[in-house]
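Hi R.,

Quick one: here's the NACHT LRR and PYD domain-containing protein sequence you asked about.
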Amino acid sequence: MDSLEECVIVLCRLSDCGLKDEGCAALASALKSNPSHLRELNLSGNKLGDSGVKLLSDLKEDPHYKLEKLYYCEYII
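And here's the predicted structure, written out as tokens:
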């Protein structure tokens, strides 16, 4: 069990799962309230609007978070 406590998620693929702006808001909120080691987030193939993308892009630009790559719509930010 000790090894599970030390396990960190650095890559999360949520591609083609029907995520919309509301889901982005929930995801951004969860990432803000629970500091993580997440470095790469793949949201390609979802129906994201400007507001959802902005919420997650803001996390990427914030030095308090470790997010380095954000994929959506086949583009990398």
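The radius of gyration is 13 Å.

Cheers,
M.
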